[in-house]
Structure prediction request, 240 residues.
Amino acid sequence: MNYFNYFTEIEDAFVRRRGKHLFLSPMDWALMETWKEQGIPLHIVLRGVERSFDSFEAKPRKRSVKSLLYCQEEVEAQYAEWLEARVGANPRANGNSAAADSDSTRFSSDAVRDHLDHAQKTLADLANIRSRSNPDELAEALTRAASILKSIRDDFESGATSDTRKLEDSLTGLERMLNQTLLAVAPTADLEGAKKELKVQFKQYRSHMDPAVYKQTLDNLLLKRLREQFGVPRLSLFYL
Prediction:
């Protein structure tokens, strides 16, 4: 992950979660520079941004988030926890992996590691193939996701990220980025055709569903089709 990508990945995550394009202020760029100088890993910053917006959306305010400064407290809290976890890690090196597994996660470390390895390799392979045949926005997003996922995997291997709730937050953020890209690169005609087909299939259920639930169900099924079409794997630990 080079110097420039550190900033662009954070900007992309912030703008994506905010929902409206907003140019970051000089103060926001200075804040990212500070995080970079402090040595805060990119995936920790991204997790902090995701958690900040999750909290905001859980209790919506009248005012929208206009600055990356809104995420500062959560980013630095995530970094502090990450540093604390690295002190004395790796629990596996201490011959206490079984205890660590039972205390921090319902998934075994081996299963999580294999899942992350498989997902990272799949994304990297897809990125290489698409970069050669069709170097577009999706090829770039797959490359970015594979790079970030490698950092997340390395953190898990070192014992610095053993809490699967935090791991899931990071994976969810990557999935959001990939989902948005899939919707952007898919031909408009294909998307409209798929939406129309799904609406026909769910027509008899619509009157019995809350409008928000109905919309979310259609969106989820549309993304499922796109992931299958482009071969993009699910990253969530629920797909172990």
